[in-house]
């Protein structure tokens, strides 16, 4: 562990296509198969659009639950019985005859120790939410650096999906070093015109397409921040799945930063919760602020046990998901090319994690309808997430996640599913169709 940027224009889409990213599409978030934590703009803000969007979402989720074949089926959509089944077998992970936790004792302490060990930090502290964990982390660093200014990407989760909590609740001020749909470079950090006390890096940057720098680039960015006497905090909600792209173990990745936040419910499929990891003195201060923020929950044993289960069962499988996501992405590109679409993009072309974006030149509603009808009529749901509007007319994107069920898909399965999906799109000249056949 180490020592102790401007404007609001959304970045363009993949490869400079002019399409707005998911973050550029709205400030409120959405429940998605890939991300699962935010309400999306296409799901409406008021009648009658809200009613139509709600019905689309309910229909899509119903199909997702019933579909025979999907690339990933998010656990959070399961029934209560199905969710409780996540705790089956946890007696092998923790002694269930021990007294239940009280305000962070027992099983919660065991989870904190496990996380600190996995990340190679001195300590870790459990939080009920990542929003709270990161506010506390940056507030603690502000007290130590003497600066309440946090440099982060405008597409970062606190800027897009937390109702300006950094400023409204924690008194922090944010600046944006770059607006490109990627993490900042070392040169951009060094040349940024304003001072800042902390640099926050979301790894991967979800709204730009779950993108990551190389490990060498990340190390250079961290060093550039340290040259400015700033601390570095990793928003590692999805840090667990970065090891394949970086080619480094979690301890080496986390070791670049002064503090790291990780989530237990995204890729690990736990019931919820997060952890803040870092130096022991920071973690102890964070415990005090957790209490002040209302995060000292009386008992958290179901969530803690589900997190331990995720670390035991899901974490070892994530590299396999990442590698297969690259097979799926290549097959999607091949399938769209064979279908003769005038323009289609998988972004990144080779996914950095097991999640990525797909962009198509169609109306978002037309794409969502085609996806749902494919699931209803064939039992195969290729695109489980909603399609959302880009910045340009007739340009939309969706997020694709590859999980355990996706491992059964061959490249040919994907290509065939793409062909079937494209056949369900409007022909040229129909509403929502930019001209599929040229």
What this model shows, in words?
The protein is built from 16 helices and 13 strands. It has 438 residues and is an alpha/beta fold. The strands form 3 sheets. The chain has a 7-stranded mixed β-sheet, with helices on both faces. Strands 9-10-13-12 form a 4-stranded antiparallel β-sheet, covered by helices on one side. A hairpin with a 7-residue loop joins strand 9 (345-347) and strand 10. Helix 2 (49-66) packs parallel to helix 15 (364-378), helix 4 (107-119) runs parallel beside helix 13 (301-313) and helix 14 (318-339) packs across helix 16 (411-423). The longest helix is centred in the C-terminal third of the chain and has 22 residues, at 318-339. The protein is globular and about 60 Å long. 53% of the residues are buried.
Rg for CA atoms:
22 Å
- Number of DSSP helical runs: 16
Structural class determined from secondary elements:
alpha/beta
Q: Distance between termini?
A: 54 Å
Contiguous low-pLDDT stretches (5 residues minimum) are: 1-13, 15-45
Q: What is the average of the pLDDT values?
A: 89
Could you say which overall geometry the principal axes of the C-alpha atoms support? globular
Beta strands, count: 13
Name the strands of the widest sheet in spatial order.
Answer: 2-8-7-6-5-3-4
**Beta fraction of the residues?**
5-15%
Q: Main sheet?
A: 7 strands, mixed
What is the N-to-C order of secondary-structure elements (H for helix, E for strand)?
A: HHEHHEHEHHEHEHEHHEEHHHEEHEEEH
Helix content: 25-40%
């Amino acid at each position: 562990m180490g020592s102790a940027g401007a404007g609001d224009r959304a970045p363009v889409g993949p490869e400079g296509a002019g399409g707005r990213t998911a973050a550029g599409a709205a400030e409120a978030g959405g429940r998605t198969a890939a991300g699962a934590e935010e309400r999306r703009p296409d799901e409406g803000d008021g009648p009658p659009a809200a009613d139509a969007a709600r019905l689309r979402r309910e229909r899509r989720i119903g199909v997702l639950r019933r579909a025979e074949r999907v690339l990933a089926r998010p656990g959070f959509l399961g029934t209560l019985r199905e969710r409780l089944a996540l705790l089956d077998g946890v007696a092998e992970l923790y002694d269930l005859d021990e007294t239940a936790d009280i305000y962070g004792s027992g099983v919660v302490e065991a989870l904190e120790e496990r996380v600190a060990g996995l990340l190679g930090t001195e300590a870790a502290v459990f939080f009920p939410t990542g929003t709270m964990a990161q506010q506390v982390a940056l507030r603690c660093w502000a007290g130590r650096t003497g600066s309440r200014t946090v440099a982060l990407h405008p597409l970062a989760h606190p800027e897009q999906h937390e109702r300006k909590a950094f400023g409204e609740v924690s008194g922090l001020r944010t600046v944006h070093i770059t607006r490109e749909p990627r993490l900042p470079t070392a040169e951009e950090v060094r040349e940024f015109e304003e001072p800042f006390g902390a640099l926050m890096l979301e790894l991967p940057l979800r709204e730009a397409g779950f993108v990551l720098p190389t490990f060498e680039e990340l190390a250079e960015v961290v060093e550039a921040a340290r040259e400015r006497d700033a601390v570095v905090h990793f928003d590692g909600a999805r840090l667990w799945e970065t090891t394949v792209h970086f080619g480094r173990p979690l301890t080496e990745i986390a070791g670049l930063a002064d503090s790291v936040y990780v989530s237990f419910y995204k890729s690990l499929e736990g019931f919820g919760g997060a952890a803040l990891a870092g130096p022991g003195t920071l973690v102890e201060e964070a415990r005090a602020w957790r209490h002040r923020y209302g995060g000292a929950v009386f008992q958290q044993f179901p969530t803690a046990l589900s997190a331990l289960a995720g670390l035991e069962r899901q974490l070892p499988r994530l590299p396999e998901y990442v590698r297969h996501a690259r097979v799926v992405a290549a097959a999607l590109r091949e399938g769209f090319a064979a279908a003769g679409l005038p323009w289609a993009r998988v972004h990144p072309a080779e996914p950095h994690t097991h999640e990525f974006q797909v962009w198509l030149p169609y109306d978002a509603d037309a794409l969502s309808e085609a996806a749902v009808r494919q699931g209803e009529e064939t039992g195969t749901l290729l695109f489980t997430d909603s399609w959302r509007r880009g910045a340009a007319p007739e340009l939309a994107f969706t997020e694709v996640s590859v999980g355990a069920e996706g491992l059964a898909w061959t490249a040919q399965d994907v290509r065939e599913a793409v062909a079937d999906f494209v056949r369900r799109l409007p022909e040229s000249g129909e509403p929502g169709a930019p001209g599929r056949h040229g």
